Amino acid sequence: MIVCRTLGPVQAILQDGSAPADLQWAKNLALLVYLARSPEGTRTREHLIGLLWGDKPESKARQSLNTALSLLRGYAGDEGVVSDSTRVSLRPGGVQLDTEQLEAFLAARDFAAAVALIRGEFLEGFGIKGASQFDDWLAAEREHWRRRSVEALLCGAELLLAGGDVAGALELGERALALDRESEAALRALMRGLALAGDRAGALKQFDAFAARLARELGTEPAPDTRALATQVRLERTWRLPKGGGGGGAASAGGEPRRTPLVGRARELEQLVAAWIACRRERHPAVAVIGYPKGDPQPAEVDWAFAAPAQWRLARLLERTGGRTDLCRAYGEVARRWAGGEPRFRARADSAARRSGVAARPRCGGAGPRAVGPARRVHRDAAPAPRGAG
Fold it and tell me: I need a labelling partner for 129 at 20 to 30 A (CA). Which of 70, 162, 340, 341 fits?
């Protein structure tokens, strides 16, 4: 089998890893890749002659085609390359292109494997002198695989960002924009990566350069989504990450490393990102992140005292943003936690109960037995709740 790497500088290698010199000749590679990308891997002899040897007399052109086919058959096997007096075909198993692997990885959403295949544009730096039909085909193929490669890089960047790897996402954004200078999706990914790495000035510099080039070359401006992102980066200082020495962080202009968010907590960060995306999609007014101290054993007074104020803050937030059912549930949780704790906490349950309009054992908004079970599991070290407290 011949394995052909086309997403970057082209190279044809055999299964043993060798790369025979005669297989790398330009027209042999052109014939190999063109056939592999043809419908059902088949073309007529006349078409191939006109494509690659149109500048030669017919007899010499046919001889050149036969010589090239003989060489390909010697490496791909007699079953890999078949021909008759009119047609030439590549059979499955004889030749494999990395573009086929790219599509398979994208279909399986294995973006890391897809990104690993991309080394540059399709047949980078390759061309056949005097073969205008081949050049036209090559231009169309490059445009197609440039678009697919950028999609793969941006999907990989989004995955890395969800896992907290800002530096890795930034690198893929840079690669995507280098591959397609006209891609505003790639520009936005790069701007987000720079902003999250703390380089808001760098993100705006990329935007300004892109906008200036569009105005100069095309007389137009970036799309509304891109302009809106630039405004967001310019106004929101919360893009900046805290300074630190995390090994995965991106370096600032001065060489100082910056810490990526939630280092070592990729699963937790992915859950937060998913929750945020869901809230934006469903237009929820707010997201509340409530944490609890960890450790075993956990003193009951710390556990109860920490959880209830967090719920209290959530309830106060809901008072401002609406949502009666969620508000009632939040105050009910406060009443339950404080009513089941030590005496000094039980006195505070009354205020929460009054705000929720229910007794210390709330049933409003569905905060019933299903909510009690998790509370008991979290607070397993606390004193038993008194009868009637839930």
Answer: 70
